[in-house]
Amino acid sequence: MSAAPAPGTLVPAAVRHRVEHVDIDASGVVHFARHASLLETAALTNLDRLGAGIDVLAGLGLDLVVADLRMRYHAPARFLDHLDLAVDVLHVGAASFRLSGRISRVPSGPEAEPQVLSTGVFVFGVAGRACGTARPLPEKLRTQLKECRRHADT
Known about the structure:
Blueprint: E1 15-18, H1 32-49, H2 54-59, E2 62-73, E3 82-92, E4 96-105, E5 115-128, E6 134-135, H3 139-153
Antiparallel strand pairs: 1-3, 2-5, 3-4, 4-5, 5-6
């Protein structure tokens, strides 16, 4: 389902998703709440690719938490549309990181352009599994996210 670049490449990769029945509301369009969930899927898939996914964090006694989420909706997605879910690293701090995301409809013809359907910004942090309090980001995760950010700036 995802278009994965070569291992070790620190570039977020788009995740492909086909709209299923579970994604849509009674009017046949993707429910607004699913957009955030789909972008979270892209974020988690890319964290896994970097070797810093939720399983790795759990092994360190940490949970990944969403501290803030903002979404903008531009156009509807419909049943059986093919979507690209993409994320980019905006900022990496000591205890949190911010990702931007976009959901685009995959063009159906050779001359068609992708259409951006929604955009969002997530702020993620980590918390101790046992106590639930905020913790600094693990150094490996910070370094990898900064490398993604650095690559995006070039």
